[in-house]
Design brief:
heterodimer; A: Translation Initiation Factor IF3; four-stranded mixed beta sheet; 4 strands; B: mainly alpha; 9 helices
Chain lengths: 75, 185
C-alpha cells in the first residue's frame, strides 16, 4: 500500500496518459498513484482510461488549471 | 470587495454554472454543437469552415506590413486569393472565425477558472513545437487544408477527398505517436 507520485505538469496530451499507463504497470495492487497534470484533456482521458481498467479514480482540483488524479490500483 | 468575492464564490459553486462552464462537455454534445456551428458558418460566409488557410493570409498581410509583396507567389496568384488579401484583415470571415476561436478559448478557460501559464519543461518541447508546427502548417498548405478544411468540412460536403485525407491522417498519427514514444517517454 505504497503511495507514488508522477509529475506531468507542463506535459501535453497524450503524454500524461502514456506515462500513467507505464508507471501504473510497475505498481502493486493496492498502491496509490498521484498524477499531477495541468493539461485539461488529461483530466478527461486519464480517469476515463483508469476507470475502464477497473481502478478507483478521484480528481482533485488543486489550483487554477492544475489537477491531481488519484488512482488506486485494484488489479 | 467582500460582497463581490462572495458573489463569485457562490457563482462558482452554482450547479448550472459548473455544468455549463466547468465540467467538460461530452464528445456527443461537442459533436452536435460543432455540426450546428459549421452549418451556421457555411450559411453566413458562403465558405465551408476552414482554419489554416486563414493563417497563410495572416502571414501574407504581415509580409505586406513590412513592405513585402506576395502577388507573384503561386499560392496567392489566383484572383480569389488576391481579392481576399485586398479586402484586408478585418474584412475576412476566416479572420473573424479564427479570432473567435482564440478569444473564445480564452473566455472559456477564464470562466472555468482554469487559466494557467504552463512551464516549459525541456528544450525538447520547444524543438518539437517548432518542428511540429512547421510540418503541420506546411503540410496543410500542400494538402489544401488541415483537419478542419480538408477533413471535417470536406466530409460534411460529401466530398470523397475528406475520406482520402482521413486515411493519411491516421497513417501520420501512427508514425507521430511512435516518435512521441521515442522522444518523450
Amino acid at each position: 500500500m505504497a503511495e507514488f507520485t508522477l509529475d506531468c505538469l507542463g506535459e501535453a496530451c497524450p503524454i500524461p496518459l502514456m506515462k500513467t499507463e507505464k508507471k501504473l504497470e510497475g505498481l502493486a495492487v493496492g498502491d496509490i498513484l498521484i498524477v499531477s497534470i495541468d493539461h485539461s484533456c488529461a483530466m478527461k482521458n486519464i480517469p476515463e482510461w483508469a476507470r475502464k481498467q477497473g481502478h478507483n479514480v478521484e480528481i482533485d482540483e488543486v489550483d487554477d488549471g492544475e489537477w491531481e488524479v488519484v488512482i488506486e490500483k485494484t488489479k | 470587495m467582500c460582497a463581490v468575492k462572495a458573489f463569485f464564490d457562490k457563482l462558482g459553486k452554482n450547479e448550472t454554472y459548473v455544468k455549463i462552464f466547468k465540467t467538460p462537455f461530452t464528445y456527443l454534445t461537442g459533436a452536435i454543437l460543432l455540426s450546428i456551428f459549421q452549418v451556421v458558418s457555411l450559411g453566413a460566409t458562403g465558405d465551408p469552415w476552414g482554419v489554416s488557410g486563414t493563417f497563410a493570409n495572416w502571414g501574407a498581410w504581415l509580409y505586406r506590413l513590412v513592405g513585402g509583396n506576395v502577388d507573384r507567389w503561386y499560392y496567392f496568384s489566383s484572383a480569389g486569393a488576391q481579392a481576399v488579401l485586398d479586402r484586408g484583415f478585418l474584412n475576412d470571415p476566416g479572420t473573424m472565425r479564427n479570432l473567435g476561436i482564440i478569444f473564445g478559448a480564452l473566455a472559456a478557460v477564464l470562466l472555468a477558472s482554469q487559466f494557467k501559464i504552463k512551464k516549459i519543461k525541456s528544450k525538447k518541447q520547444v524543438v518539437a513545437a517548432v518542428v511540429g508546427g512547421f510540418l503541420m502548417g506546411y503540410g496543410a498548405r500542400l494538402a489544401y487544408g488541415c483537419n478542419i478544411g480538408a477533413l471535417y468540412s470536406a466530409i460534411a460536403s460529401l466530398s470523397l477527398s475528406g475520406w482520402a485525407f482521413a486515411v493519411f491522417l491516421f497513417i501520420g498519427a501512427f508514425f507521430g505517436s511512435k516518435l512521441l514514444r521515442k522522444f518523450f517517454m
